[in-house]
Specification:
- Pfam families: AAA_3.
- The chain is an alpha/beta fold.
- It has a single domain, classed as Rossmann fold (3-Layer(aba) Sandwich), CATH 3.40.50.
- It has nine helices and nine strands.
- A hairpin with a 2-residue loop joins β6 and β7.
- The protein is globular and about 60 Å long.
- The N and C termini lie close together (about 10 Å).
């Protein structure tokens, strides 16, 4: 168990340079079956961290870009009429993944935010009168820009309480910055990560 966790940490550390503490905290949060909120400026590696964690843990992954015109149906999914069967067929939204990245969550309206946050609380969603369970395990990593930036809708305390942990990545140190400038783009390294053979770190979390 310990060796598997160390392997996951080392793999992600190789992608996100100079952020060993934050990577360890993020992995701890997920293995505790909690949701993670990352508040930072754009370009700090938030999305790369999510991609790397999903890959090493063997999780299905979806990214939702929150914008001011995002609707709850864009998150949860919707039913579309099928002419051949004469019935409405449900098309699941990006919320139906084991690891969901809610990118810039505070750029969406409170109505769109609540669609995600209710799913985080209940582990299921109710759409058009039908209750649909979310995958197990189900993790959300949400990112938000500092509230001092324009075009943001601050999350109230009652919604912040849905997150087990809140952290910031911050700027890279001098050595990490030099390595980033001289090395490959970090996103290009993601396909080289080996997935955990036990999805979601299921064995790790259960232990």
């Amino acid at each position: 168990m310990r060796s598997k966790l160390e392997k996951c940490l080392n793999a992600v550390d190789g992608i996100l340079l100079g952020k060993e503490v934050q990577v360890r905290l993020a992995l701890t949060c997920l293995l505790a079956r909690g949701h993670l909120l990352i508040e930072d400026l754009p370009g700090m590696g938030k999305t790369t961290l999510c991609h790397a964690l999903a890959r090493v843990l063997g999780l299905s992954f979806q990214r939702i870009q929150f914008t001011s015109d995002l609707l709850p149906g864009d998150v949860l999914g919707t039913s579309v009429f099928d002419k051949d069967s004469g019935q409405f067929v449900f098309h699941p939204g990006p919320i139906f993944a084991e690891l969901v990245l809610a990118d810039e969550i505070n750029r969406a309206t409170p109505k769109a935010q609540s669609a995600l946050l209710e799913a985080m609380e209940e582990g299921q969603v109710t759409i058009e009168g039908a209750t649909r369970p979310l995958p197990e395990p189900f993790f959300v990593i949400a990112t938000q820009n500092p509230v001092t930036q324009g075009g943001t809708f601050a999350l109230p305390e009652s919604q912040l309480d849905r997150f087990l942990m809140r952290l910031s990545l911050g700027y890279p140190g001098r050595a990490a910055e030099k390595a980033l400038l001289l090395g490959e783009a970090r996103r290009d390294l993601l396909p080289r990560l080996e997935a955990d053979p036990h999805p979601a770190g299921a064995g790790c979390a259960a232990g």
